[in-house]
Every structure is written in structure tokens, then in C-alpha cells.
Amino acid sequence: MNNDQKTLYESDFYSWTKQQAQLIKERRFDELDLDNLAEEVEDMGKHEPRSLTSHLMQLLMHLLKWQYQPERRSRSWRDSIILQRAKAKDVLDENPGLKPRKAELYKKAYKKAVVLAARQTELPLETFPSECPWTYEAVMHDDFLPENPPH
Question: Looking at the domain assignment, is residue 61 inside a domain?
Fold first, then answer.
């Protein structure tokens, strides 16, 4: 890598990506900015687990709200549940390598969902179970909606 590439990477990321793509297409591998290119490829792979976690978090948050505030149920909440479930399925369909991490990401998403649900419902955090009361398989089923809150 020469100083011009380093400067371009730091000052104009978009142009740097175009340049690197062109060098790859032209098979001019010895001119690639390999250190930064490797870092960017690694970063690209981090996006998909974050995306799955985000969709699961939104789905679980809306399911918690659905269960713990039955009087506020709306078409909007149901639509959000449907949308986030579909988006989570899409991420897994497009990235089957994430399947072994499903349980870990689901657990992480639930912890975040509880905090959001508590904030949005203004219910105490302790209202919600510390562990997710639903299996991943149940939550991902198209017809799943939780019952009213336990007494």
C-alpha cells in the first residue's frame, strides 16, 4: 500500500472503495490496500449478527408490549410483529452461517427488548421475566401472539 491509498482511505472512503474494487477487477492484487481491505471485510461480517439481533429485539419488544399491555393492542403493533419476524427470517435465510449463533443472539435481543418494553410501557423492569418466556421457534411462527400477562 502506498501513502496515496492510506490518505484516500482516511479522507475519502467512498473513492477508496471504488479504487479497491477496480484494482480487484483488474487483478492488480499487489496494489491493493490489504490491511484496510481485510478490516473492512471483517466489519461487513459484523453487520449481519447485529441486524438479526436488532430485528429480534424489535419483535420481542412488541410481543412483550402485546402481552403486558393488552388494552393498548393495535394494528400497528401487530404489523410491527409481522414485519420484524419477516426481517429476522430474511437475515437468517440470506446468512445461514448465523444459525449456530441463533440462541446467543436471541438471548441478547431479549435482554435489550425488556429494557425497551419497560421504557415504552412505563412498567417496572421487574414486570417482565428475566429470561424469555417463549422459545425462538414459537416466536418465529407466523401465528404466534402471546396471551394476556400472567397473574
Answer: yes
Nearest by Cα to 63 from 151, 9, 11, 140: 140
Angle at 53 between CA 52 and CA 59, to 5 degrees: 90
Amino acid at 21: A
Are 82 and 17 in a shared domain? no
Here the cell at position 93 is 435465510
- At 33, list the grid cell: 490496500
Range of the domain at 57: 46-140
Which grid coordinates are listed for 146?
A: 402471546
- The grid coordinates of residue 136 equal 425462538
DSSP string, 108-140: HHHHHHHHHHHHHHT--GGGS-SS-SS-HHHHH
Number of domains in the chain: 2
Q: What is the pLDDT of residues 93-119, one digit of tens each?
A: 999 999 999 999 999 999 999 999 999
Instruction: Please state the pTM of the whole predicted model.
Output: 0.81
Q: Is 28 helix (H, G, I), strand (E, B) or coil?
A: coil
